[in-house]
Amino acid sequence: MALHDVNSEKKSVKLGGIFRNDCLQRGVRVVSAGAVLCAEISRFNHSCTQNVAHAWEDPYERVYAARGIKAREELCADCCCCITAWRLRANVRGS
Length: 95
Hints:
Elements: H1 15-22, E1 24-25, E2 35-36, E3 45-47, E4 52-57, E5 60-65, E6 76-78, H2 86-93
Parallel strand pairs: 3-6
Antiparallel strand pairs: 1-2, 4-5
């Protein structure tokens, strides 16, 4: 399964388009820390009621259970920063 290129309407897939579409912020509280591309984590679906969270612990992006996860339950990460207020997350998802 390939990662999505944000510019996929163009004929060729470019690494820059994939990075812009799938990158993760490296460190939650340090905006200037840059971003990383994590192929497996980027494939998780996103939800405002996520069951996993990810965090940068140098030198890796790690995934943790945010709550109990049942067998065969899909792993979903947050759709925006996990410290963002609930009301803002609700606006992002269109509620």
